[in-house]
Amino acid sequence: MKYFWKILMDVYKFARGIIALIVLMFIGTFIWSMYYVSKTIDETRHAPAVMATTALAPIAAPTSVAAGAAFPASAPDAPTVAVDSKPAPRQAKSPVSIVVKHIGRGSTEYDVSLVVMLKNDGKKAIKAAKGTIAIHNAFGDELTHLVIENAKTILPGKAVKEAGEWQIIGNHVALNAINGDSADTRKLTFAFIPKVILFEDGTKFEQ
Question: What does the pLDDT look like over 64-74, one tens digit per residue?
Answer without folding.
Answer: 444 444 444 44
